[in-house]
Amino acid sequence: xxxxxxxxxxxxxxxxxxxxxxxxxxxxxxxxxxxxxxxxxxxxxxxxxxxxxxxxxxxxxxxxxxxxxxxxxxxxxxxxxxxxxxxxxxxxxxxxxxxxxxxxxxxxxxxxxxxxxxxxxxxxxxxxxxxxxxxxxxxxxxxxxxxxxxxxxxxxxxxxxxxxxxxxxxxxxxxxxxxxxxxxxxxxxxxxxxxxxxxxxxxxxxxxxxxxxxxx
Length: 216
Ligand SMILES: [Zn+2]
What we know:
Oligomer: single chain
Mean pLDDT: 96
Structural class: alpha/beta
Number of helices: 6
Number of domains: 1
CATH architecture: 4-Layer Sandwich
Number of strands: 14
Bound molecules: zinc ion
CATH class: Alpha Beta
Largest sheet: 6 strands, mixed
CATH superfamily: CNF1/YfiH-like putative cysteine hydrolases
């Protein structure tokens, strides 16, 4: 089952090139991926969400989420290991950049609430490629912080048995807490996948994108 019929969600990979904000030539690669005006964000691991009321509005804003009910407005977040999350309903979409700091800050419920203000009916979500527990050793103090924000479901182990963060489980818990029960997950680990950029794997500053928009 896919998204409601007008919502579109696209995840890029390495074959689409570096979509990091400010990368040389990034505008051309954005348009090749999705040929619409983009609202991309200067992400700071916070909970700010921009409401896009015309295509391209708030491009370059300092925020970690964007929502719209306007046809043809591409909303994008760019990620290297953090989770890209799309939330969509009958007549609106939203995107979130969710790393562990964003989870603690509450970016997921902030985007869900902003989408809900734009559309009636139930919401769905999808989690894109991100670092997964086997590859995400995590300090016990930070793990406690994330667990106190979204629950013990985030407590996991690496393949070597060390404490790890299950970021996707945390996103799923935050979505459920905000009333989004249906959540798909592409189940790709950026560290393991040769088709994805990963800062944790090799220090790369290149990024893949999640792009979501409403089709006519
Ligand atoms: Zn992995």
